[in-house]
Amino acid sequence: MAISSSRTRRAERRDPVGLTEDASAHAEAAPRARVLSVVVPLLNEEATLEQLYRELEAALPATGLEWEVVFVDDGSTDGSYRELVRLHAAHLNIRVVRLRRNFGKAAALAAGIEVAAGDVIVTMDADLQDDPAEIPNLVAKLDEGFDVVSGWKCDRHDPFVRRFVSRIYNTATRLATGVKLHDMNCGLKAYDAEVFEHVRLYGERHRFRHVLAHHLGFSVSELPVNHRPRTNGHSRFGIERYLRAPFDLLTIVFMGRYRYRPLHLFGGVGLCASIAGGAILAYLTVDKVGGSAIGGRPLLLLGVLLVVVGIQFLSLGLIGEMLTSHHEERARAGRSGRPHVRDVLH
User: Fold this and answer.
1) How far is CA 92 from CA 84, 87, 272, in A?
2) Which residues are 120's β-sheet partners?
3) How far apart are CA 189 and CA 13, in angstroms?
4) Residues near 204 by Cβ (< 8 Å), separated by ≥ 6?
5) Angle, to 10 degrees, between the axis of helix 239-258 and the axis of helix 160-177?
6) H or E segment and range at residue 40
7) Cα–Cα distance measured from residue 15 to residue 9, given in angstroms and rounded to the nearest whole number
8) 2, 5, 46, 211: which has the highest count of C-beta atoms within 10 A?
C-alpha cells in the first residue's frame, strides 16, 4: 500500500535534480537523508554570532541529522553582516540572508524559512539566551509524532516586570485560543517543515505561529528548556509590544475560529441586534396604537439604531462568506495545497 503525503511531495519539490526513471527507482530505495535547518533572525548581534555558531556546531551532531544554519540579518547597523560574511566563508553549512532594512522578526523568520532546505526547522534568537544544547531534545520530541514543539522557559532570566507581563499574556492567550502551552513567546521552537507550507508569517504573527498551526490541525507540544541570562546588548521589546498584543491576539482568535465562517460571528451579532431592535419597535408600535406619543422617546431611536446595525452586521457576514468562497475556489483551481490533510492512502 503506497502512502502519498504532503511531506513526501515537499521533498520531491525541493529536489533540484531531474531524475531518470532508473534514478528515481534508486532514490526510492535509498531515501534522502533528513536535514535540520536552524533559522536565526538577528539585529545588531555581532558580538554573539561566532559563539552561537560554535555552540550549534557542538550540539547539533547529537540530532543525527545533516544540518545547516540560516542567519537572517534584519537590517543590522553594527558589524553583524560583516561577521556573517566571515562565518559564511569559513563554514559550508551556513546560509546568510540580508534584508534591505529592519522589517521585524516575522519578516526575518519568513525570509529565513523560505531559503531553508531542512525537513525539520528550528527557530531561535541570536542573543545566546536560547541554549543550542536543547535542540536535540526538541528534535527528539518532534520525532514522537508532533508537528510543533515549543520551548518552555521554566526558569526565566529576565527582569521581573517582563516576566510578570509575559505571564498575563500567556494566560490570556491560553484562554482565548485553547492552546495549552505555558510559554507562548519562547523563540526556541522546532517544526516539521510542512507547517510553514500553510502558516504564513507577517506583521506580528510570528508570536502565534504555534497557535496558527494548532488551528490548522497540526499537533503542538511543549518541552522545558534552559534559559540563560543576557550577556550582550539589551532587549528590543518595549512596553509598546504589550500594548499591541491584545490586537494581535484578537486577530489570531478571529482568524482561527471564524476565518472560514465569518457569517457565524457577524451574523450572530447582527441577528441579536435586529431581534432586540425589532422587539423595541414592536413594543413602541403597540404603545402608539394605545394612544401614547412615541416620536420624542429615546427608545425609538435605540430600536431603529439596533435594526440598522443588525442589518449591517448581517451584510458584513454575507460579504465575508462570499470572499471566503471566492478564495477557496481559487485555491482549488490553483491546487495550492491542502492544509487540513495529513496523509492520503491510495
Assistant:
1) 12, 9, 62
2) 36, 192
3) 25
4) 104, 106, 244, 248
5) 10
6) strand 35-42
7) 10
8) 211
CA distance 75 to 99: 6
Parallel, antiparallel or unpaired: strands 189-192 and 120-123: antiparallel
Rounded Cα distance between 191 and 127, Å, is 21
Cα–Cα distance measured from residue 267 to residue 249, given in angstroms and rounded to the nearest whole number: 22
How far apart are alpha carbons 70 and 84 in whole angstroms?
A: 10
Q: How far apart, in whole angstroms, are the C-alpha atoms of residue 130 and residue 124? A: 7
Residue 14 parent element (H or E): helix 6-14
Placement of cell 484562554 in the chain? 175
The dihedral over CA atoms of 254, 256, 259, 264, expressed in degrees to the nearest 10, equals -70
Instruction: Give the pLDDT score at 271.
Output: 93
Report the pLDDT value the prediction gives residue 15, as an integer from 0 to 100. 44
Helix (H, G, I), strand (E, B) or coil at 46: helix
Q: List the grid coordinates of 240.
A: 509598546
Q: What is the Cα–Cα distance from 149 to 30, expressed in whole angstroms? A: 28
Q: Which amino acid is at 142?
A: L
Of 72, 222, 200, nearest to 134 by C-alpha is 222
The phi, psi pair for 236, rounded to 5°, reads -100, 10
Residue with cell 435586529: 274
CA distance 139 to 214: 18
- Residue 295: phi and psi, rounded to 5, are -60, -35
Region label for 96, one of left (φ > 0), alpha (ψ between -120 and 50) or beta (otherwise): beta
Q: Which amino acid is at 55?
A: E
* Grid coordinates belonging to 333: 483551481
CA distance 213 to 198: 8
pLDDT over 70 percentage in the chain: 81
